[in-house]
Specification:
By secondary structure, the chain is mainly beta. 9% of the residues lie in helices and 60% in strands. It has a single domain, classed as Porin, CATH 2.40.160.20. Strands 1-4-5-8-9-10-11-12 form an 8-stranded antiparallel barrel. A two-stranded antiparallel sheet has the order 6-7.
Amino acid sequence: MLVKRLGVAVVMVVTMLVASAVAQDGKNELGGALGRTFISNQGITGGTAPHTIIAFGNGLSFDVEYARRLWVAPIYSIAGEVVMMYNKDEDINGGSYGFAVVPAQLSQLFVTPAVRFNLFPTTAVSPWVSVGGGFGHISQSSQLLYGGTNPGSSGTSGVLEGGLGLDVKVWRQLSIRGEVRDFWSGAVDFPLAPTGKSRQHNFFVGGGAFWRF
């Protein structure tokens, strides 16, 4: 429920930012991407077979992006952007029947204002890097994988974002985008399967499009 409320709030903020921007000056961008979120497997501290590793699935995810170009030159440009990435259903595997230690799934929401640097922004092909920070919320299912009530809790933490990508102009103000973003967030709470980690990398790999106006 909290994730839905946060998502609605972010959409409202982005909408207000777009509405307040200078209309039709070519410095605004609005778009999104569809892809997968990759989280590295984590070892369970003190774990014994058969449940020594927590494995994460590659959850189908999407992001919504709004950006405003602050400086544009032939060689480079600087833009402020807000990125919201949502991973609705990340499957988890760990433990075994009779040894339930992790929830069946979790969901993630990351919201990160950032600064983006593009090379050759006035050409048809423009690579870029992005650096920023914001917050993330991770929700867990109430039931453990293989049965039982999950004692783990959902949580919100600060998030650092780093990304790189490539923009290709295809028609008028429409461009396609390929991107990889790392959302470095707080680790998931696994009381029955401690990993010894306080932070974790969440790599979003996706492709999409945006419109410049």
